[in-house]
């Protein structure tokens, strides 16, 4: 054996360079053998610097005899389950080297050989609308909203099957990006929380107002999200079918020469989504003309299909699924109150529409490269024109014209002129009613008041202290009986409480039912008498039983 201890056997004798005849092995039982039937010997070479080691071979198998166990271990070509668990294979070593650490393990759980986490996330997302809307699934529009959410998400998932990872590639910084996004979200949350705390409320007040009261708002206030439910569901089913067809065509064809129509379709979808968000309706498109949510929800699956001729990095493929899913999930905030939440939810579709426009431009560029210089020049000219025309349309219809109209309306309405509302301009009927109510609060020497329902702006305008705990607008069901009892005790302790009743406004909070038999309801009904009527408002002054005296 060589001094380096390698696995090569020593050179055979017979001259330099290995020339000459090699030594002939001795036959067992012949000359040089110690006796007939003696076991042959074998020389074993290995590492460790040994020149050789003599071992006797196994005995010959006798007919009908028991087989002797060889002095070496026999490994199967396919390892057992125990060996797979305990001993790393070459493929696992290669995978752990390419994608090591927690990011590699998470990538393999989500999309590798064990995609169970991916399926858990998919099922959880599809079940989320049912979980959020569970309390009111007996209501027709709520059920159809849940189905619309699920079908829109299914369309995105069906379209995303065109996103195929490249074998052996790493995460490409995807999980580093996700971690940075989570850290940014947490930092923004902390900053917002600190700003709110600096304005006066405590942590418990913030939790009660932002979490507990928000979860209970459906108990006393529900504003329906108006959309053509039956037609929207029909279009949602069509969206799932279109996503399946488009995904199949995308997987079957990959040449840039046919990318013209896909590029134009992507650009059209992007423009339609952005126009819907901006309330720009050049054509009356079903399922709901002018609706900023339904039509974008049914088209976001287009963003999940990558362009034909581009090999995208992992993080961009991740965003293709994330952005449409986030936009669909944001739509759930229209329940239970579809007010300003509709506009806030529609903002999440802006990024999806921009992504569709960018994908359309990628496909059109690939098509123009195949068709030569004239096609490239025409595309460049069209891109410049569209880059000028589209922002001009959005700026005119979504910013300039609404701003001019609102400014004109603001100037035409009379100034309110009350404390804390010097910049407010209110329409004529409400203007007179608010001014008269504030005058009556001062004229009747009210120390505080309770509203039916509560109109908290009047406390500021009349410069009166509101009772504690704060009475929300729809306090009939928003406050517990113990909270209402505390408010009653606070009102009784006030020198001269008053009441302002508006049955028309209260009907929206009572949902057509009679008022509940709760402490504050009984206190208002039994301890005040009518003093004046101002439009739909009834101004009531206290009886002797209204105060502790």
Element string (H = helix, E = strand)? EEHHHHHHHHHHHHHHHEHHHEHHEE
Shape: extended
Structural class: mainly alpha
Rounded to an integer in angstroms, the radius of gyration calculated over CA atoms is 39 Å
Largest sheet: 4 strands, mixed
* Total DSSP E strands: 6
In round numbers, the mean pLDDT is 81
Compute the separation of the termini in Å: 114 Å
Estimate what percentage of residues fall within beta strands: 5-15%
> What is the topology, as strand order, of the major beta sheet?
3-4-6-5
Count of helices?
A: 20
> Portion of residues in helices?
40-55%
Taking pLDDT < 50 over at least 5 consecutive residues as the criterion, the unreliable ranges are 1-7, 13-20, 27-35, 90-100
Question: Which terms summarize this structure?
Answer:
single chain; 549 residues; mainly alpha; two-stranded antiparallel sheet; 20 helices
Protein model, in words:
The chain has 549 residues and is mainly α. Among the domains are: 108-163 and 195-371, no CATH class; 428-546, no CATH class. The protein contains 20 helices and six strands. A four-stranded mixed beta sheet has the order 3-4-6-5, sandwiched between helices. Strands 1-2 form a two-stranded antiparallel sheet. Strand 1 and strand 2 form a beta hairpin. The chain is extended and about 115 Å long. The termini are far apart.
């Amino acid at each position: 054996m060589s001094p380096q201890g390698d696995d090569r056997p020593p050179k055979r004798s017979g001259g330099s360079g290995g020339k000459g005849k090699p030594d002939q092995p001795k036959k067992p039982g012949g000359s040089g053998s110690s006796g007939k039937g003696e076991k042959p010997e074998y020389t074993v070479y290995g590492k460790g610097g040994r020149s050789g080691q003599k071992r006797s071979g196994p005995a010959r198998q006798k007919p009908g005899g028991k087989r002797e166990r060889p002095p070496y271990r026999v490994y199967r070509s396919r390892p057992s389950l125990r060996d797979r668990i305990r001993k790393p294979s070459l493929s696992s070593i290669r995978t752990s080297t390419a994608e090591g650490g927690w990011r590699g393990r998470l990538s393999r759980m989500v999309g590798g050989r064990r995609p169970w986490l991916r399926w858990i996330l998919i099922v959880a997302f599809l079940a989320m609308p049912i979980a959020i809307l569970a309390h009111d699934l007996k209501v027709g529009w709520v059920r159809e909203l849940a189905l619309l959410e699920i079908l829109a998400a299914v369309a995105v998932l069906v379209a995303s099957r065109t996103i195929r990872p490249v074998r052996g590639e790493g995460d490409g910084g995807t999980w580093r990006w996700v971690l940075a996004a989570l850290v940014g979200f947490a930092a923004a949350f902390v900053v917002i929380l600190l700003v709110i705390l600096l304005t006066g409320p405590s942590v418990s007040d913030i939790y009660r107002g932002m979490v507990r009261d928000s979860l209970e708002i459906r108990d006393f206030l529900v504003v329906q999200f108006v959309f053509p439910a039956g037609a929207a569901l029909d279009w949602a089913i069509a969206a799932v079918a279109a996503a399946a067809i488009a995904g199949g065509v995308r997987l079957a064809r990959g040449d840039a020469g046919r990318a013209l129509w896909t590029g134009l379709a992507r650009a059209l979808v992007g423009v339609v989504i952005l126009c819907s968000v901006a309330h720009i309706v050049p054509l009356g498109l079903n399922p709901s003309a002018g609706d900023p949510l339904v039509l974008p929800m049914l088209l976001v699956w287009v963003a999940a299909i990558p362009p034909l001729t581009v090999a995208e990095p992992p993080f961009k493929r991740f965003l293709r699924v994330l952005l449409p899913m986030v936009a669909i999930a944001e739509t759930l905030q229209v329940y239970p109150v579809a007010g300003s939440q509709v506009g806030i939810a529609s903002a999440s579709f802006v990024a999806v529409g921009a992504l569709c426009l960018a994908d359309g431009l990628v496909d059109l560029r690939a098509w123009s490269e195949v068709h030569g210089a004239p096609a490239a020049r025409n595309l460049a000219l069209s891109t410049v024109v569209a880059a000028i025309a589209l922002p001009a349309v959005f700026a005119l219809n979504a910013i300039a014209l609404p701003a001019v109209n609102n400014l004109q309306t603001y100037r035409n309405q009379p100034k309110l002129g009350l404390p804390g509302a010097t910049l407010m301009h209110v329409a004529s009927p409400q203007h007179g009613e608010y001014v008269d109510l504030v005058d009556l609060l001062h004229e009747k020497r009210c120390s505080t008041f309770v509203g039916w329902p509560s109109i908290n702006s009047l406390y500021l305008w009349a410069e009166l202290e509101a009772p504690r705990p704060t009475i929300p607008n729809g306090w009939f069901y928003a406050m517990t009986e113990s909270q209402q009892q505390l408010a009653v005790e606070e009102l009784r302790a006030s020198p001269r409480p008053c009441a302002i009743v508006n049955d028309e406004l209260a009907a929206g909070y009572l949902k057509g039912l009679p008022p509940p038999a709760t402490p504050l309801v009984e206190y208002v009904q039994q301890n005040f008498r009518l003093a004046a009527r101002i439009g739909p408002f009834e101004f009531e002054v206290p009886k002797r039983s209204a105060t502790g005296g």
